[in-house]
Amino acid sequence: VAAAAANLLGDWYLCGVRGAGLRGAALATAASLVLYCGLQMLVLHNKGVLPPLAAFRRLPTKKVATDMASYCGPYSFAMFTRVAGVMLVTSFAARVGALPLAAHQILMAVCYFLAACGEPLGQAAQAMVPRILGGRDGRREAFRFATVLGQVCCCAALLLGTAAAGVLKWGPGLFAASLEVQAALQELAPMMFGVLFFSSVNVVIDGLLLGLKDLKGITSLVCLSSSAQLACLFLFGLPGKFGLAGVWVAMLARLVAW
After folding, report:
1. What is the mean pLDDT of residues 189-210?
2. Nearest to 142 by CA among 222, 220, 207, 197
3. Alpha-carbon dihedral 233, 236, 241, 245, rounded to 10 degrees
4. What is the DSSP letter of 258?
5. 256 exposed, middle or buried (CB, 10 Å; 0-12, 13-18, 19+)?
């Protein structure tokens, strides 16, 4: 909260008062991230879990390094492919034109803003599944937990998808003054329902797979979903075909495949 408040105040002062534009916005964001990192380290220090500086000069043991690599390796690959996929769809949107690119950036902002609302469900799955599995009759209890979490997730996904489609269909003027950009947002509003729905479901699937430490499953799903996205980008997203709608078909295809 403190970091977000600092970001907002920095944007207001640097952009609104000083007129620094994009440079001011970037500076405010960077300052808020530095503040966030410092506050996190302070909390860890107060809880007694922040390692001393001398610990960073010691190399980890072979077992620790191997365990970290076996866990971080597949998940790092998954995160890299997702970020690369976002960069790729943005590059395809830029090829369609300047106004479609502006609409694409708004769609991405709405998508990530609303998708973040489903993150707590995925974090709950990641944190609670290992503890449940370690208890008595862990497999059965984990199945029950996943069932309840799935029901809650579907309700949240429907709500977030409806919110995304509604705000883009009936409130495009909140995001852009250009009538062409507003028309593009309204055109893609129904598709954004599917994007937010499957994105919210995927967050919970991620959490469950990480909680189960099914890293092979994650790697397989990454390869499948990335292949679906690439295929749809070249089938529908190239200039002269389906425009910005084709780009977002590829984004939806990745989420559905996952």
Report:
1. 91
2. 207
3. -90
4. -
5. middle
